[in-house]
Every structure is written in C-alpha cells, then in structure tokens.
Amino acid sequence: MWRKLLFLLVLVLFSGVSPLLSSSESYSDACDARSLPDPLTLRPDRLTVLINGYSEARLPLLNTLAASYAAHPLVDAVLVLWGDPSTPAATLASLSSQGDGSASVFVVRNPSTSLNARFLPRAAIRTRAVAVCDDDVEIDSRTLSFAFSVWGSRGGVALVGLFARSHDLDLERRRWIYAVHPDRYSIVLTKFMILSVDYLRQYSCWGRLSEARRLVDRERNCEDILMNFVAAKASGVGPVLVGGRVRDWGDPRNNGSGGGAEVAIGRMGLSARHGHRKKRGDCITEFHRMLGEMPLKYSYGKVVDGVGEQGLCEKGGKLVLCDRQD
C-alpha cells in the first residue's frame, strides 16, 4: 500500500510539468474504488491516452508517439503501459519528459505481460474518456480531435475507433468467425479506440468475465474483442467508425518502401502471426459461450468530419475534385 501512496504523491507533486514516472500498478488495487478518483471529478473535456508498449525495438517510435499525443491540447495525460517486466528501467529512459505546455507522460510498468492490463482502472486517469492505442499507430492531430468529438456526441457510451472488423456466423460449423465486411462492422480495434473510463472497471472487475480474461491471458490475444463485448452489453449499441488520417506502422502489408523498419515493426504485431484470424474467431465463439449471449451489434457507415463536393472536374489537365483550390 505504501508504494501506491507514493505513486499518488508523485502524481500530485509533478502534475502539469510533464515528468517521466516509472511505477507499477497493483492489480489488487484496480477494483478498489477507494484507490481511484471520485467519478464526479473526472474531466469530460479532456482524454487520457493509454499506449500499450512491449517491444524495445519500437521505443524510438513510441517516444515520438508519446510526444505527439502529449502536445495535443485535448490530452490530459499520456500513460505508457509497459508490458515487459524484464525490461531494465534504464532502457525506458528514452521516453523522456516533454516540453513546456505538454501533457504529462508517465511510464507504468505492468507487473505481468497480461494484455488485460491495458484495461485496468488507474488512479492516474482523471478524465471521463480514454484513448487506448498501440505503439505502432500514428494518429493525425485533427483526427484525434474529431474522434473525441464524435465520442462525446454519442453520449460517451459507444466505442469510437478507426479500424473496424466484424463477427460473422459459420452456419455449417455453428461457430463465429472473425471477418472484414465492406458494409458493416461490429468491432473496433485497440489500434486506436476511445471509450468511457467506466468500461475499464467493468472489463477488469466484473466477476462474470473472469473466465474470459483468463482466455485472453492464455491466448495472448482478443482483449479488444472482449472490450467490444463489454461495451455492447453495457450500452446496447454498436461501435462507431470514424474517418481520418492514420499511419499504421505495424500493418504487415507495409512493403518497406519507406525503410526496413516498417517491415520489422509489422512482423512483430499479433496480426502477422499464423492463424491469427481463426484464433480471434474462436475467441468470439468462446466469449459468447461464457457470457451466454451475443451482445455484439452491427453498425453501418463511417462518420467523417465534413461533407465535400464529390464531383470531378478537369483542372490543369488532371481530374480532381471540383471544389479543390489550386
């Protein structure tokens, strides 16, 4: 407990000056409401960014991403959730504090490699919304602002994301499969996802999910799918997909034209592993069985930040959008 109190004291002393903080978050305290901020004090006009980190090879990119999020005017704090307990503290020193005017950046060393840790309630979260993201996805500043505004406009109950997938039924095998559809979706990925802080507590503390969380640990996968189950069950609505500018360094389809680092990063991701899609379909089937219901709901379409003219005109010998200003 004394470590927890020391952690909170450091947060108070250094809030607003963008420090680097290395600490551990106790799983035993995560579901104790007394260790968390009063929900009535959480800010509705800011969000906390939770970046999941594990690979030391990605530290240069992670440092850039943390600095970019910290400089965004809507970001209250950036928490780098480091999932490899064996990494020396000195190695993480590259995640240095940001300059004046930036949000605070904290490094939280998780006590285990569990992917469930990315959804733990945390005392450092002082906002109603959190953005959960991977350490290989770079979000344009305007896109982040727009996604947060969409989250607020939907009452803060739906998951808002930039990468969508779907569940589908294999009638012959009587099992769910993990799919990509051009016209509908029911899952948004933790590559980038905005959600209510309430869902962190439901995911981590709801006893009925104990078996499902163990499945996540066993498979080292599917924590994002389980969060979609949690949000859909709690809200009764499907996720919201927004359009925007995103650089996905971890997509295995990167061909390396920008350098060998893209290929190396892409090969580290879970999605690059053999059998990834089947495993995620199995997770959907098992979560359904464990909960005794299928809460996932389909959504349709994408929310964009403006309605521009779609007509094409010839300008300078090229076909371009007619409203394009040369």
UniProtKB/TrEMBL annotation:
Gene Ontology terms: cellular component: membrane
One family name in Pfam for this protein: Glyco_transf_64
Occurrences of domain Glycosyl transferase (ranges): 47-303
Protein name, as recorded: Glycosyl transferase 64 domain-containing protein
Keywords linked to the UniProt accession: Disulfide bond, Signal, Transferase
Molecular function terms, GO-annotated: glycosyltransferase activity
Signal peptide region: 1-22
